[in-house]
Amino acid sequence: MARAFRPKPQTCEIEAPGAQPVLGPAPVDQPSCMLSPFSTNLWAFCPVFPASPVIPLTGLKPVKKETSFIVGDQIDSVETGVSLITGNAQLDQGDRRVTSDRMTYDSNSGIVLVNQGVHYASPSMMLSSPSGVYDSTDGTGTFQDTYFLMPRRNGRGHANVFNILDDDRSQLYNATYTTCPPGHDDWLLTAPDLYLDTATNTGEGHDVSIGFFGIPIFWSPYLNFPINADRKSGFVGSTFSFDVINGIEFSAPYYLNLADNYDATLYPRVITKRGMQNGAEFRWLDGIDQGMIYGDYLNHDQLADRERSQFYLSDTARFDEFNSLSTLYEWVSDDQYFHDLGTDLTAVSTTILPRHVRYDYDDEMDWSFMTQVEDFQTIAPGIVPERFSYRRLPQTVVQWSNNEDISGPQFSFYGEAVRFQRDLRVGADRTDVKPSVSLPFSDAAGYFTPTLAWRMTDYNLSGDSFTPFRQPTINVDDRHESRVMPIFDIDTGLFFDRDAGDYVQTLEPRLYYLRVPYRNQNQIPLFDSVQPQFSYLQLFSDNRFYGADRQGDANQLSYALTSRFLDSLTGVQLFQVDVGQTRYFADRRVQLNPGTPAATTTYSDVVGDMLYDFNEVWSTTYSQLWNPVTRQTDLASVLLQYHPGYQQVINFGYEFLRPNIKQPSVSFAWPLKGAWSVVGGWNYDVVHHDTLEQIWGFEYDTCCWNFQLAHRRYLMPNRRYDNVFFFSLQLKGLGTVGRHLEDLLQRDILGYTDNQFSEPLQPEEQPTPQ
């Protein structure tokens, strides 16, 4: 399922303006705030303006019915009730202040006429004007030729006429608005009338035009926009891209802030070569429950000549710290849906879509319990229905162990009961239980843990056909199959360490002996079992298969060695290497599919992993499988990474899998001079002499606007190349025209978004399918 995330609001870390607010045009050379390359933050504004330095703006009473206090260098009575104040004239009323060189005050009406260097300050607005009128009876006013800014926000602008309606609302005429810092009117919103409400953090305008460096780029008869990072209804940014298959794509999502605990978003999308797609999403969040529902519909895909649609439902209810209920349902209309219409480029590789309703209980000490009904939609082209994954209707898993803090024998229990169903294939009711007892001995120098388990698996087969599609050699003569076997293992290891100057080096040898007798399991169909790629962790597993349909026979000893280098002061690990191998004392007769010859090798591949942090910015990882019989490497991967900062990363990698995978790769994201940055990636197939994927892009990013351009060329399953172009122009504080590249870059550039200072997503920032 393709997903996008709403970024968390934040501001740039640069020094705020000085004590005296700048209300008019600032010097052109005033610096703007530059952000990290390809920032994922939609609301990375320029620094907010400070509160008024003229008057305390917190903790005061509202204006209504507050007494006005007027002072000045000279006060003259002009007529009855009318006074003229000249020289440093100042009116204070509640949390507002009006200052000018000349002020006329009518005590009968409460009207104040001001001119000659007028300044107005309140908690929500600060103005600079040559003249104006202020009504002290209700706190309203009108100012001419006004420059304004909003304290503790990012907005500022100019209006020929600025009307203060109350503490939070203002009406502007012939107005401009921007979030750029003073002196940098890179983009400007212009409207004959503009309404600002700092209570709801909303701006509204009619006949709105937006200019970028003086060039008109957008017009709308009506526009509703936020004046800070809070949620509000309105357009949340348009997307634009082009590729050779779909043509031009354009989308303008509209966000509906319905309530504090639920919202909705509409996703209209135009694809020139396919048609008009409409989507909608609804999200909710309350005390125990949160979730979302999403769907889209394309009435007639002109390329595929059919309807296309998608549906997604996710809900999780946590009743208390132990009990939870989750629901997930995903569906698309056809196998090629994500390939043709997915906006997340990683969705192309999706092969199954899960659906389940699941209840969990976990006391985090002894007991855990799970029961669910689960199904999958298979969307991998070429897989016939007879090979689809089984439904679990239902599945129940129970696990128990006595508290590990208790000395003496450790008892545990695993039990599963599941019903497998699938059309055109054998079904079954399967019960799998595995009680075990271990007697651990451990201290600071090492440990010794023998474990005895007893695995009992029982099948009641069902279905009209008793010849599983994937196993035509099996004849199921009986509706009942069972398997019972003991499992015995000994896990033991030692810990050594020595002082190596600034570091502590450890040496950790480990032995793992496993004994499982052979049981013929050829009559048991495969419902959920697979044999994974051999790895270091499998050296210490009591079953070389995943799933209960196969329990591997074993008489083997695994031996491994781990060494670490730790910082002697902080304990931070700088280096780790693991190497190990398994010695087989008997052939492995149990195989995944009947008819497969027994494995007769005496030794497994030598498996090794290494992780080395050279310093705070350089690191490398390496893993390898080496075959002692052929004396060749069967699998290897290496990654060298230079990562000095957030979204500053260079990766060099190589993947090898005998016989036909040899793939070097390089990827990077790096800031250039000033606000420029560049990203790129390349993945090459040495065997077939093909470039699998390449991407390049650049960005120019300031605190009030951002421009991104990228191109991706990748090899499709039909061995043809597709080319996709993306661009994004983001006016921070209004929205985005273009397509954000973060999903693409996170997939293609390892470490691109690693940031030790990042904060977790909040409830209102749940995933959104697109």
**What is the CA-CA span between the terminal residues?**
8 Å
- What fold name stands as the CATH topology of the domain at 64-228? lipopolysaccharide transport protein A fold
Low-confidence regions: 1-43, 54-60, 465-476, 755-770
Second rung of CATH, namely the architecture of the domain at 64-228: Sandwich
Q: How much helical structure, as a percent, in the residues?
A: under 10%
Strand content: over 45%
Instruction: Note the total helix count.
Output: 2
Radius of gyration: 34 Å
Sum up the overall morphology in one term: elongated
Tell me what you see in this structure.
The protein has a 26-stranded antiparallel beta barrel. Strands 4, 5, 6, 7, 8, 9, 10, 11, 12, 13, 14 and 15 form a twelve-stranded antiparallel beta sheet that branches. Strands 1-47 form a two-stranded antiparallel sheet. It is mainly β and 770 residues long. The chain is elongated, with a radius of gyration of 34 Å. The longest helix has 7 residues, at 742-748. It has a domain at 64-228: Lipopolysaccharide (LPS) transport protein A like domain (lipopolysaccharide transport protein A fold), CATH 2.60.450. It starts with a strand and ends with a strand.
